[in-house]
Each structure stands twice: as C-alpha cells, then as structure tokens.
Amino acid sequence: MKIDVLALFPEIIAPALQTGILKRVQDANRLTVNTYNLREWATDKHKSVDDYAYGGGAGMILKPEPIFAAAGTLDPDGSAHVIYLTPQGMLLTQPITEALSLETHLILMCGRYKGVDERVRRKLVTTEISIGDYVLSGGEIPALVLIDAIARVLPGALGDYDSARADSFTHELLDHPHYTRPAEFAGMNVPEVLLSGHHENIEEWRYAESLKRTAKRRPELLQKLELTEEDIAILEAEGLAEAVKNSERN
Asked: What is the pTM of this model?
C-alpha cells in the first residue's frame, strides 16, 4: 500500500520511518510512505498556507487552495482514501486500523493551527480520525501513530504473527501480563501456571488476566463483549463485577 503524508512539518515523521518495523515493512515492499510539505503547493512568494478566519476569532486556518492543489497532484483520479487527523475525528481503534490496512492508497492530512477550511473537509476528506481526547500542536504525530498501527498489521511486518494477534484491543481486551527470566526477581515470582508447561491452563490464565485487567482499567470495553457465566464468575471473584455494572450504566 502507499501512504502520502501532507504536513507543514514532515521532518517530524521522516526519521521514524527509517527504524524498526516501519523500515522493515518498507524494505519488504509492503508499504511505501511519502512525506510532503504543504508549502510546496503555495503560490505566493512567502509560501503562505494559512489565513485569518472569516468572522474573526483567535487562530489561523489552513487555506483550501494549497490543499486542493496537493490532492490533485497526489491523487489525480480521486481514488485515494483521504484521512484528516483532527481531535474532532472518530477515535482510532484496532478495527479501524485493520480496515485501513486493506486500502491501496491513503493520504494523511495533518492539521495545524485552528484547523482547515471547511470546504476541504466537505470535498476532499473521506475519514476524520483522532488518536485521543486531547490537543496536540499538529497532526504529524497522530499521522505517525496511524502509520505505525497500520504497518504492523501488514503481511511480513512482524516476525511472529501470533504476537500481533494477541495484542491489546485485537479481541477487545487488554493484553495479559507477561514474564521472562529469571523466575524470581526482587522477591517477586513468575506465576506457577506459566512454568507448568500445561498450555490449556496457561491460555485460561492469560484470558482471565486479560479480562480482569480490562475490567480494572478500561471497563467500558467489556460492553462490546457477551460475557459468559464463567467470565462473570472470574470478575465477581476479584470484586470487579460492580465496576462492569457502573460502566454499563454510563
């Protein structure tokens, strides 16, 4: 797949593309990422891409002309999936990431200042995405988050496919605790079940720990699941059933 990133500060993104999984998946020709500075499509001598808002108010607005010109260059036939990174967008989730990984061409538009002219959103943008309920200086970091999330689910990105399948949010639960050697450290021991070699018991333990961790930290995620009687018994034994009920009421 190809991802084009349109930003005012593409240099924020470029170094990360040359490390780790992002570099590996590009070297394997599974992903091509191009970064562009929006000022390349500015037409005045100052390379201006922003202006004051009609109606007054603080903050500058990204102008439509450079963005439309860039879109025409990067996607002349209008077939790309255009994503605007903005706090007003839908919250990025693993299912959204996996759906986007099936696209062939994404254009990521990185917001700045007070945002973009509304006509850009109405005419060019396919999807608006947020990485959380907070405000950053611009869309470059959210774009990098999205690129990384997409890259790691592409074929060949990870050496161990099962590792990706077990990640947090892949099955609507947070990941279970992990341990490595030594078996005892600073007075803390690895749970006996993990040393038993009994794979069925280990999987049951991991699922129960994922369920409990999700109930403690992100109980709202359990609303997406149909909890079994066994699941409810696990939560009740840990005193977590009330937290789930509170989440359901909210």
From this structure: 0.86
All residues at 6 or more sequence positions from 101 whose CB lies less than 8 Å from its CB, including other chains: 1, 150, 153, 154
For the record, the structure tokens of 103 come out as 């696209």
Confidence of residue 159 (pLDDT cuts 50, 70, 90): low
The CATH fold of domain 184-249: Trp Operon Repressor; Chain A (1.10.1270)
Q: Distances in Å between the alpha carbon of 99 and those of 153, 195, 240? A: 10, 37, 33
**Cα dihedral 225, 231, 233, 235 sign:** negative
Tell me what percent of the chain is helix, strand and coil, each rounded to the nearest 5. Answer: 45, 20, 40
Mean pLDDT, rounded, for 12-38: 96
Q: Is the sign of the CA dihedral 149, 97, 153, 167 positive or negative? A: positive
Q: Where are the domains of the chain?
A: 2-151, 184-249
Contact by Cβ (8 Å): 240, 215: yes
Q: Specify the residue for token string 């038993």.
A: 196
Superfamily name with CATH number, domain 2-151: SPOUT methyltransferase, trefoil knot domain (3.40.1280.10)
**pLDDT per residue as tens digits for the range 168-201:** 555 689 999 999 999 999 999 999 999 999 999 9
Return the pLDDT at 168: 52
